[in-house]
Amino acid sequence: MDPLADKLLTSAALLSLVQMELAPAWIVWVIIGREFAVTGLRSLAYARGVVIAASPLGKIKMVAEVVAILALILGRGETQDEMYVLYVIGQTALWVAVVAALTSAANYFRRFNVILSPRLADISVAREQHGSRKAG
């Protein structure tokens, strides 16, 4: 349950940033959509007996999200130079998070496809076995 709680807490914080006009809605939707897609993909793989481990890119994404959330909340609405620096750090971290989210999602889908799709060698073996049964 901890990973689910982490996802819900992070999603709520990101949605709050959109409401406070500190984060673009499309970036937040990409990140949250990636979470749903990857979680569903990993659940499907697990149901088939395959565990797809968390990728380093997913961990980078999570760290970038936390940095973005913290920096944007701490730097909001202030005109002081220090607060503006926090805002810039938060925006940069948000972009790092969205790039890592898209890259890691593509990586998860590639790994899922390689692990769970039928391999060409398996198809060749199946054809040979089927062909030998017809001949015999």
**Average residue pLDDT:** 83
Q: How large is the radius of gyration?
A: 21 Å
The overall number of domains is 1
> Main β-sheet, in a few words?
none
Number of distinct beta strands: 0
Structural class: mainly alpha
Q: What global shape is seen?
A: elongated
Helix % is over 70%
Sequence stretches where pLDDT stays below 50 over 5 or more residues: none
SSE order:
HHHHH
Distance between the termini: 54 Å
User: In percent, how much strand structure appears in the residues?
Assistant: under 5%
Counting DSSP H or I runs of 4 or more residues, the number of helices is: 5
Summarize this entry quickly.
This protein is mainly α and 136 residues long. Helix content is 82%, strand content 0%.
Structural description of this entry:
By secondary structure, the chain is an all-alpha fold. The chain has one domain (2-135). 82% of the residues lie in helices and 0% in strands. It contains five helices and no strands. Helix 1 (2-19) packs antiparallel against helix 2, helix 2 (25-47) packs parallel to helix 4 (81-116) and helix 3 runs antiparallel to helix 4 (81-116). The longest helix has 36 residues, at 81-116. It is elongated and about 60 Å long. The mean pLDDT is 83.
Write the layout of secondary structure elements.
Blueprint: H1 2-19, H2 25-47, H3 56-74, H4 81-116, H5 120-135
Helix pairs in contact: 1-2, 1-3, 2-4, 3-4
